[in-house]
Amino acid sequence: MKNQKNKSRKEIPEEVERFNIIFRIQHVIMFTTFLLLAFTGWGLKFAGLEISSWWIRIWGGAKTAGIIHRVAGVTMILDFAFHVLYIGYLLITGKMQIRTVTTIIPLPKDVKDVVHNFLYFLGIAKTKPKFGRFSYAQKFDYWAVFWGMFIIGLSGLALAFPIQASHLIPEWSTGWIWQLIAILHSDEALLAIVFILFWHFYNEHLKTEVFPMSWVWLTGKISVRELKQKHPLEYELMFKEEPESREDHNDSPDDSSGEEKGD
């Protein structure tokens, strides 16, 4: 009887997959192109500084650095577009479902979690907020990429292909639009670098519980212990225990006879 009960309960593994190989490849392409864009763009943005001349020479000179910058930018945009299409494919095929516990979409609960977390930091709340698959910080991290891609990506394409872009720009704005596009691209890129350095890099590399890095981006897996600690609502959704009434029902003579008939 006890053995049947134990078998009916869902076995809890040591690790679970958080991101499949396709998501991991997308992330590798994203951060590789981001680093290339940051390294080459920094020298081009501050070309007037003496150290920039030395830095640009490392990348083969201004012309080569510009080519690397454009190739990396186009690759990042294609990677971003593929990510959006892949998410759409998963939703259409039913392989991904929108649930309040697992969705990356911001919800009213995230606002409550922000307030709850601040109250916890101040010592007013006694417990931390319970997060689902993604905390409010991770959602902010994710959607910041969308904002950056639209601002940096569109302005970058216009600067990389000015002749083609000029066909879409009204004639009455040609006196100032290119300066505006250059400022948008440059300053938003600087903001993205600062954000990644102080927000994403700290949370995924420098925090004591993940130092020197979180290995999820490489293995795609997270330990069940970490899942239960950091994403308790998702843990409860994945490994919720079956009600006792259901176990009692499975052990009843009528149900056993039903199983034999099914076999």
What does this protein structure show overall?
The protein has 2 domains: 20-97, no CATH class; 105-166 and 177-241, Transmembrane di-heme cytochromes, Chain C (Fumarate Reductase Cytochrome B subunit), CATH 1.20.950.20. It has 263 residues and is mostly helical. The protein is 70% helix and 2% strand. Helix 2 (21-45) crosses helix 8.
Average pLDDT reading: 84
Let me know the largest β-sheet. Answer: 2 strands, antiparallel
- Give a count of the beta strands, DSSP E runs of length 2 or more: 2
Spatial order of the strands in the main sheet? Answer: 1-2
Question: Which CATH top level class of the largest domain fits?
Answer: Mainly Alpha
Beta fraction of the residues? under 5%
What is the second-level CATH architecture of the largest domain? Up-down Bundle
The SS-based structural class is mainly alpha
Q: Which fold name corresponds to the CATH topology of the largest domain?
A: Fumarate Reductase Cytochrome B subunit
Distance between the termini: 19 Å
* Shape descriptor: elongated
- The value of Rg in angstroms is 25 Å
In percent, how helical is the residue content? Answer: 55-70%
What is the number of domains? 2
**Count of DSSP H/I helices:** 13
CATH superfamily of the largest domain: Transmembrane di-heme cytochromes, Chain C
Low-confidence stretches: 242-263
Q: What string, H for helix and E for strand, traces the elements in order? A: HEHHHHHHHHEHHHH
